[in-house]
Amino acid sequence: MNKQTLAEFQEHLKKSRRIVALVGAGLSVSSGLPTFRGAEGLWKNFNMIDLATPDAFYIDPGLVWQFYSWRRYSALAAKPNRGHLALAKLSNLPQTNFITITQNVDGLSARSGHNSDNLYEIHGSLFTLKCTSFMCNYIEYNNFKAPLTPALRGTEHEFLKSSLDSESPEFSPVKQMKDSELPQCPVCKSSGTQSILRPGVVWFGESLPMQELNEIDDFLESEEGPVDLILVIGTSGTVYPANSYVDRVRLQGGKVAIFNTDIDESEIEGKDGVWGFKGDAAELLPVVLEPLIGEVKQP
Ligand code: OAD
């Protein structure tokens, strides 16, 4: 880590009264969860982005549920890392006005002890379930059951156990599933109809949660003054509106700090109010935020 960059950043950090963290999949990499767009952004040879769409669910809900069931298992097996804990500490400081906007659906920020009043999971959560019927608004939060149905048992393994020792392990086969084997809406069932539940995540082409976006807007436009700093953590910044928050903070005169394994620090170097920290966000955040949050212990 470049010492001058760190010193300049920390000087600004200590003066900052209003701070935003914009979080992406890179923050959870050291907890063992894959990113979307890296070479590892695959599940059984399917592109993860192709599976995160309403069309994919419409065509084959069983396939998409097997993918999400695997993601639920993976997230449950993962533990928040020191990067999550550093943000959680920042979120609980009384003197700093701070919000985290996370695009991650893995629930690790919530599980790290992040103050829930200033955590916005704008892409939803793997542990929220919603009814697919237009006539029903059933929604269930914090459902950590695994497997969700008997037919989804076994989805925790991406590969056949028997092939794990070989150089190219075989994927465990995707099952054909009937709707009746997928999670069912209890409200529809009690009124005599059958509707399946879906994961409470935002898919490509869907709207983001309006209330959360409004609250983020209120923070960004607050009369308390402009945002002084946005921490851009482990995100490729390819998805709207997440990517627009950086520009909005910069337009207010706020500075930007990027934490990513895939940047060229020498090109950034504090130019135009942007600092770059190249490396694992889980390791970088406890170090750079230390003047405000003190020491972050190993989880
Ligand atoms: P991406 O997979 O697009 O980007 C992950 C970023 O993390 C990349 O820029 C990597 O270089 C970086 N990275 C990888 N490992 C890292 C580490 N250990 N420390 C720091 N950085 C690291 O994931 P997101 O930007 O989160 O949306 O993707 C945004 C959204 O697009 C997702 O929420 C999802 C996706 O498709 C929906 O599903 C709606």
Automatic annotation (TrEMBL):
EC id: 2.3.1.-
Family note: Belongs to the sirtuin family. Class I subfamily. Belongs to the sirtuin family. Class III subfamily.
UniProt keyword Transmembrane, yes or no: no
Matching Gene3D superfamilies: SIR2/SIRT2 'Small Domain, TPP-binding domain
Cellular localisation: Mitochondrion
Residue ranges occupied by any Deacetylase sirtuin-type domain in the UniProt entry: 1-295
Cofactor note: Binds 1 zinc ion per subunit.
Protein name as annotated: NAD-dependent protein deacylase
Leading EC class: transferase
Positions annotated to bind substrate: 68, 71
Cofactor(s) required, per the database record: Zn(2+)
